[in-house]
Design a protein that fits this description.
76% of the residues lie in helices and 0% in strands. The protein is globular. The longest helix is centred in the middle third of the chain and has 31 residues, at 102-132. It has helices at residues 3-31, 41-64, 71-89, 102-132, 138-161, 165-188, 190-195. It is built from seven helices and no strands. With 207 residues, it is mainly alpha-helical.
Length: 207
């Protein structure tokens, strides 16, 4: 097993648990749909966090695949994925009460969830900067990551602070549209995407 494969099995496992938490929460909400009001805010948040998690797998492949294995890599991966796991675990309530509305849980936890995703993205960008320092063309990639992080924060922080559903939906929806466009582009022209600039900081990862 190669060094990166060993690291990626650990990193991917922890990110996979975050996806599982979201999927379990959604399944539980659907199972109790006759007892609670699901609404659209929590599912939209869950979809965004799920897409953001997927981008972290891509980011790890791009930035860490050529690095030698070290215990430090595991600690960095653990720190990043734990932040994301906590964010994912707060998307849905852990207990379902008859007559409850997921909107109440959403407004109580949305800010924490999104600010944790900002922290996780910033951590990955910091790691990517360290990895790319000294590489040929590394400064161009670093500038790209920083610009993309600024774009990410410009959308997600207002969404985290939003008190009106339309503003939240607009900010999150715009970023999800970017994710979808990048996903389509990577399917249509994977070689061009692999050779391009960083798409999104930790959030979309591929240079």
């Amino acid at each position: 097993m190669a060094a990166f494969e060993f690291f990626f099995s650990f990193y991917g496992l922890l990110l996979g648990l975050s996806v599982a938490v979201i999927a379990t929460g959604m399944a539980t909400a659907i199972q109790h749909r006759h007892k609670i009001r699901i609404g659209w805010l929590t599912p939209l948040l869950a979809l965004f966090v799920g897409m953001d998690i997927a981008s972290f797998w891509d980011s790890a492949w791009v930035n860490f695949r050529d690095l030698p294995f070290s215990y430090g890599m595991l600690i960095i991966g653990l720190a990043i994925t734990l932040v994301y796991f906590i964010a994912a675990s707060l998307v849905f309530p852990h207990a379902i009460e008859d007559g409850a509305s997921l909107d109440d849980h959403f407004w109580a936890n949305k800010r924490v969830v999104l600010m944790l995703t900002v922290v996780a993205n910033a951590m990955v960008v910091l790691a990517a900067i360290v990895v790319n320092l000294g590489k040929p063309g590394g400064m161009v990639m670093i500038v790209g990551y920083l610009l993309n992080l600024a774009f990410y924060m410009a959308l997600i922080i207002p969404a985290a602070l939003a008190r009106r559903p339309p503003l939240f939906a607009a900010m999150i929806g715009l970023h999800m549209a970017v994710y979808i466009l990048l996903a389509v582009a990577s399917l249509v022209a994977p070689d061009a995407m692999a050779a391009g600039q960083p798409t999104q900081p930790a959030a979309t990862g591929s240079p």
